[in-house]
Amino acid sequence: MQWWREAVVYRVYVRSFTDSDGDGIGDLEGIRARLGYLELLGVDALSLAPFYPSPMADHGYDVADPRDVDPVYGDLAVFDALVTDAHEHGLKIIVDLVPNHTSVEHEWFRAARTSKPGSPERERFHFRPGRGPGGQEPPNDWQSVFGGPAWTRLPDDPEWYLHLFSPAQPDLDWTNPEVWADLDKTVRFWLDRGVDGFRVDVAHGMSKPEGLPDAGGCRDDPRFDHEGVHDVHRMVRAVVDHFPGTVLVGQVDVRDDDAFARYVRPDELHVGLTYRLLECPFAADAVRDAIEDSFEAVAPTRSRPSWALADHDTVRPVTRWGGEARARAMALVTLALPGTVFLYNGEELGLPDVELPDEALQDPRWTQSGGTDRGRDGCRVPIPWEGTAPGFGFTSGEPWLPIPAQWADRLVADQLEDTASTLSVYRRALELRRCHPGFTGTDVEWFGAPQDCLAFRRSGSTLVCALNTGTVAVPLPPGDVLLSSGPLRGGLLPPDTAVWLA
Ligand code: NOJ
């Protein structure tokens, strides 16, 4: 079986994981130092957020050079050492590809900025003259995902350039063969260094409709999910296929099942990241629907669903669902399911989102929305490992985002010792998922369950998972309890709790 089909992949937001040199920003050497922890946790792979040279307008998703390491994170030698060490710990390494856009500091964009309209330098991006008198209006009505128009005009220049995200992230023009050749080079560069796969950022982006029509006149969102994008995935997949055992994961943010299924055809992505559980309320019916939808989306393909409760873009589960008990319960549901599971660093500690003061906020969403959207920094606060504030073992300096003093009760060091901690529940769940014979079958079968509860088993297996999202305790389904997300009493499954039975 391909290793990722049942794997648990741990997403590392490099900036927030561990800082080895005291500058307050996590780095690759810091990850190396924590490989023992990740092995103990029991994950199969790490997925590293971008660590490439970047002015960090979007914390590395604005890539100035996709084939190097930003000095703040280390260098290529440290990266190579990390790959070697991770493999020695039995951990695979997945890195990000960011093919939809570059940074304004990428050499291509620097050249485009100083070149004339119509020059080959500009044809790697989407430069267009403005509309209206003096070209004062953007070329079309598209909005940036981060707020405001998706176009910025260069000073003293007749042209505007397209950026679906921040103005510091100009979109590449995927009708230009040079853009294809460069991605091919990047993919080979990291594969040659021994990575085990890629997470493709904005995998539904890249291709744009001819003529860049106004969104106002289109039935669907013209910015994303264009037929041409599938050729990009086929190109990358063809390269990846030369490196057996490597996986292509994509962030496929499309809601339509048929559209989603096209991304995981046999010659495209192996795994599509889905958002159904991430966006689901804590309610048994909704959770069941989200799980069923995820299976349906991949049903016409050979791919399996993937599952995630958290990522570096979304309010953490503890805050979203109103409490650690609920987040833990959902973790047991997720980890019982067949398919690839993606964890996000800190999820295993039950970390909540942090309400940061205005002056600490760094996400471009905050400034681009004119201060109406506080952005994603709240879920990116560094990991509290041990010791005391302000660094909590994350850094010997000042963390790039302040770690709340109350996180003294969330420390990795303490949770490792406490058998009732969230970390201990995750460790035990991962161990069972790895070793217990009940984790077979590629589908789930649902049982009847009391109101506000759900129960399923993996097809052909005796492993049963039950969840109670209601307000009253219900009788446990039959079977021996393997693990519960919280205390059980008197043969009952309490509210906000999930259980595994065999
Ligand atoms: C999706 C990434 O997850 C997010 O963090 C980033 O801001 C955008 N893509 C733009 O690259």
From TrEMBL:
SMART domains in the record: Aamy (SM00642)
Keyword annotations: Hydrolase
Gene3D superfamilies: Glycosidases, Oligo-1,6-glucosidase, Domain 2
InterPro entries: GH (IPR017853), GH13_cat_dom (IPR006047), O16G_dom_2 (IPR045857)
Region (Disordered): 112-140
A GO MF label: alpha-amylase activity
PANTHER family in the cross-refs: ALPHA-AMYLASE FAMILY MEMBER (PTHR10357), NEUTRAL AND BASIC AMINO ACID TRANSPORT PROTEIN RBAT (PTHR10357:SF179)
Name of protein: Glycoside hydrolase family 13 protein
Organism listed in the record: Pseudonocardia broussonetiae
